Amino acid sequence: MAEEIAGRDSEQDGRDLEVQLDIHMPHSARMYDYFLGGTTNFPADREAAGRALAVFPYARTAARANRGFMRRSISYLAKSGIKQFIDIGTGIPTSPNLHEVAQQISPDARVIYADNDPIVLIHAEALLRGTPQGVTAYVQADVTQPETILEAAQPVLDFSEPIALSLNAVLHFVPEGAHKITDVLRSSLPSGSALAISHLTAEFAPEETARLTKVYTDAGTPTRARSHDEIAQFFTGWALVDPAIVPTPRWRPGLDGESHEPFTDPEASCYGAVAVCP
Fold this sequence. Notes:
This protein is of the alpha/beta class. The protein has helices at residues 10-20, 28-35, 43-55, 59-79, 98-105, 118-122, 124-127, 146-153, 178-187, 206-218, 228-232, 265-268, and strands at residues 84-88, 110-115, 135-140, 164-168, 194-200, 239-240, 246-247, 270-276.
């Protein structure tokens, strides 16, 4: 079945939310959509994305590498037996979405999505087209509201069974307090749960990344790249899955059975990792 926390009447909600959308301000989710070749973006998003590409020419490849990491990490976790997922910072639906990857392996997988961009809610119907056996749900909430997301997940997920938490390409938009937020989320998950993170780093293209974070910050989305050691702190106390924390294209390439472009570390400029709660 398909459950929805918000946006069931997608046509009516789309009309209501369209008034609330500030299309004159760029949003990271819509810029990401643009980098992936999507069409759900506005002139302000494309203008900001253009400025990002001017200083960080790897933006498109980094986005594609990140999507590949999402598919492989979720595929790995679903094959390991996890059937419940929380995806924070969902973004505009780009198939295959997380639930499509998980439910292809486990048709009864249950997935809850969370994002803070109202336009994602307008497109939430695409996130709710899961298998008849599974459950997909959506809540409009920000990563800085972990309690709200966990409360919304309670009716959808069984917190006595393992849950995979996906925080892909979102924590670099939390300059301060990101580790505390992640700790709140992790502390609510039972043994056997997992955490998948991809995160911007300046270790491979320092000058370009510094200019990129300034473009995002100046556009209204404060951004912070983090080092390998800072990213490792998100997983403290949990067991990292081999190959541990590596550039996103290097995390189990070929796991999803797809061919992969030979991205370099600077072209990815993100670390990716998966860890399991003991």
